[in-house]
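note to self: dont lose this again. the chain is below, predicted strucutre after it. 493 aa total, dont forget to put it in the shared folder this time
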Amino acid sequence: MNRTAACGAQRLAARLVPVLLSLLAGCVSLPSARPPSMGPAEAALGSRAAIVATQPALSDAPVPVQWWRLFNDSTLLALEEEVAGNLDLQAGVLRIEESRAQLGLASAARHPHLSADAGYSRSGISRNSGMYQLGQPPEGTSTWSLGLQADWEVDFWGRLRYLDESAQASLDAAYYGWDALQVSVSAEVARGYLLLRGVQAQAALVEDNLRIAEELLGMAESRERNGVASRFDAASARADVAVVEARLVQLQHQRDASMNALALLLGKLPRELDGRLVAAGLPPMPERLPLGIPSEIARQRPDILQAEARLRAALADIGAAKADFYPRISLTGSLGAQAFRLSDLGSWDSRRFSIGPTLYLPIFDGGRLKSNLALSEARHRLAGIAYRQTVLRAWHEVDDALGAYASELKRHQRLQSALEQNRMALAVAQRSYQEGSADFTVVLVARRTLLNNQSELADCATASALAVVSLYRALGGGWSAQLQETATPGASS
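---
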């Protein structure tokens, strides 16, 4: 009767233990895994529809991955193909490798561990020891051992699983961080190239105006020699030539600095790109600018996906911190042989083994577990704020870039109209001065006004192209989720 009762108790325990474990595991509850709500993107980008409606070049077509091809500039395309030399991108690859190794460590903890050991020792006891007094001989003896050790932590509460999920999310964040860096470097290369072309365009304008200033100087000196004009006209013309030459020297320095900045971005030595970046005009503005759908910006920008991955990692860390409050159960065992003579290691009588579970239960740790949980929860809240900040910044950058693009186009139209009038004014002033009906100051004022107008128009053209770069940088252009397997280093491994 007692044996029957004992068997019944064992069967009852076998049924209740899994239920109890599942109830305890349910105590490890986590906050919502969804990213914080930011509201619809259409509401945040309310001005987008109005700008798109007034600009025929803007469309809702998908954002191109290699958006710099829209400029149709072969030199820019060649530079963009060399961004792999950027040292920040190379460091990003190593950060991915580091995160992948961390994931490997976390995954290894979830699997059984098996190790082998072998040893030899020779020992003897002291003649003054208690064992010798009890009759154990003091002569040295040899001990040979050989065996296998195994252990496995049973992850009842999901601690190891949460650590694994945290490491996987951190690896995803490293991948997205590399993607975000690729977007940034590609945009910086395009930006540096367009700035260089803008400086070269300004230098070309200044050289043209230098020739005009030298012609005016020759005219003023001729009139002075013939007694038609005073020394004031010639002195003013010489001063004007010197000012233009000084401006040209400044632009040449800016040109050299811009070339070196591009070389640094591509991981090259100073002056290495000078031969390939000879003076050329700004590339034409793209005829069409595909913007994509506003609600898809969260899937287009890798920095948003990176912030979301970090949020998942912080959430998994909370789960691991909560699971630390529960007991850890491990299964350990060993199997091997031990003998005083090497020849006896293979004997069946030399076998040894042990197997059994071990239980680790935290009782008092001075508040370490509570502090670790509080730390994980604080980091999760910080990750949530970082996610919201990243999304909010993305919407602002898109809105600002669209506004800059539209305003620069309007500004370019007004400056183009002013340029035509200033050219006409300079022609009239030069003709009047040659005829003697106008003072030389009028010619200088007209020429300086035209120079300023041309310079501002070149700046506007550069700013318009830079607005396109800022727009595609804000939209996450230069990276695509569909191309992640081929665009991300090490993705195939």
